[in-house]
Amino acid sequence: MAQGIQALGPPRAAVSSLAAGGDLLFALACLRRRIPLHIVLPLRQPDFIGQSVSYAKPEDATVPSPNWLALYKLVLRRATTLHFTSKAPYRACARPFKRCNQAMLHLAQAKAASAHTTVLGVLLLQKDQTSLAGGTQEFGRMLRMKRLMVNRQFLKYPPSPVHLP
To answer: CA 94, CA 88: separation in Å to the nearest integer?
Structure first.
């Protein structure tokens, strides 16, 4: 993951959501490197936690996994900024995750423009991961449609033990 984060030299800022898995691992890696981290959430916090942080993945049942909620709280406390695309109650038909991807892209482009640099998308994927509406793969397609650079990396699951800094 470090190669993806450093692909264009030291990043000036990072933009991410905080879903369990790649989002949180990426955010934690950025904080460890003292990269200013800007968080965008698609839902009010209780709904986001229930939908994207503390839900049980089927593969989690047989292997130990990080305490995603503890990581979420830690990263949120250390983030530079926090933005919401909606604070309304969760409604799957409203496509909140797609709106979040669009907001993250706009924020990344604004941060890059103000720093006179470019956007590099770092996508952390699992092999055979299904493509969910508003998910990582859809975000990657959005970046490629804008002709932005994308660094795709595949994570092994479960991730290595995560130690809180």
So the answer is: 10
